[in-house]
Amino acid sequence: MKEQNFNNHTRYVPVWHFIVAPAILCLLIGAFINLADASDDNLYSASLICLISIVLGFIYWYVRAFALKAQDRAIRAEEQFRHFILTGKPLPQALRLRQIIALRFASDEELPALAEKAAKENMGNKEIKAAIQNWRPDYSRL
């Protein structure tokens, strides 16, 4: 993997984002078209196909949401611990989760000052990432 920085730190999983998501969307649209055109003979099976496509859409959404929530909690704990090791104090209480997640890319040298600045100025996550001088890559997060 090439060196990570502000411009290339987002990551897409091509099969997940560009094949599975559109395929589920096509299935959902097709299932409702099938249901709309269904005769009395196949109304039950067309309804089941619609239900299956809706359930599959929810599964697609929540599989990702649950994984990201777990990663976000781990990042918050890691950054809280890293800040405590560096300063002997917890992260500022004013920081929101999105800000803490953005701070994970800051080097140890700039984390304490950037955390204080982010809390005082209510910086957004993109602003925080853009302010980082020495990028600390995170190759683990999907």
Please tell me about this protein's structure:
The structure is a single chain. This protein is mainly alpha-helical and 142 residues long. The protein has helices at residues 14-36, 43-87, 97-103, 111-121, 125-131.
Helix and strand arrangement:
Layout: H1 14-36, H2 43-87, H3 97-103, H4 111-121, H5 125-131
Helix pairs in contact: 1-2, 2-3, 3-5
Shape: elongated
Tally of DSSP helical segments = 5
Q: Let me know the largest β-sheet.
A: none
Number of strands: 0
Provide the succession of SSEs. Answer: HHHHH
Strand content is under 5%
Distance between the termini: 13 Å
Low-confidence stretches: none
- The average pLDDT is 93
| Structural class by helix and strand composition | mainly alpha
Which range best describes the helical content: under 10%, 10-25%, 25-40%, 40-55%, 55-70% or over 70%?
Answer: 55-70%
Radius of gyration: 22 Å
Describe, in short, the structure shown.
This protein has helices at 14-36, 43-87, 97-103, 111-121, 125-131. With 142 residues, it is an all-alpha fold.
Top keywords for this entry?
single chain; 142 residues; mainly alpha; 5 helices; 65% helix
